[in-house]
User: What shape does this take?
Amino acid sequence: MSVALSDAALASYLAEIAGRLLLDVRASGLFSPKALGKAGDQTANQFLCHALREQRPDDGLLSEEEKDNDDRLAKSRVWIVDPVDGTREYGEERADWAVHVGLAIDGQPVIGAVALPGLDPEGRGRGMVLRSDEPLPLPPAPEKLRMVVSRTRPAAEAVAVAAALDAELVPMGSAGAKAMAIILGQADIYLHSGGQFEWDSMAPVAVALAHGLHCSRIDGSPLVYNQQDVYLPDLLICRTEHAEAVLGHVARLKQDAIDA
Assistant: This one.
């Protein structure tokens, strides 16, 4: 682009364009349902990686669809992207999939953009992008708590904590969609313990933190990115007023398992 973009503006722009590319790939009708996910992943990944290397050549890069390079470990600034978070939902033409573009600085989730191309509240055909530099006001909390969980394999810890809190379970697809559901007022807690990688949560966590949400591991420890081992097994994103209760229930579950 002829005009230099800030890191946050670049993240948002790339996420939005990648989302539109993915919608075009799906609308082409050229791919079977089985092949669509791979075609979409590769198309969005090529765009995001080429664009980031062009716009930020000195930064590191970690993508789900790109071979990892340890060179990023020596970098202070590392872009972490997930071209299609929720490949199954993308292929099924659901709304709960996302594109993640985030920037970790010294391991901290500083900047993020999460595109939700399947959501189009303004009818512009461009989907929705939530970003760390333009936080939205959180909707009022409802009387009954809601916890987003996996559509296909809800984590046992999440189900147990939801029961303890008398929270309604809300099945949903991608990690990004779950995290953004809290910002959009569709849920209050996202507790995950089934295993993830850095690209699954980095951009959503940056956006969630900017909106004043609590984000941590399920033992309360901080989320740190750009590690050599990119596996990040668990995650809690919730409204701050629920964090203490959720972490307390998780700790009790762990202790009960040890005592059993």
User: Anything to note?
Assistant: The radius of gyration is 18 Å. The chain has two domains: 7-131, 146-259. The chain has seven helices and ten strands. The longest helix spans residues 33-55.
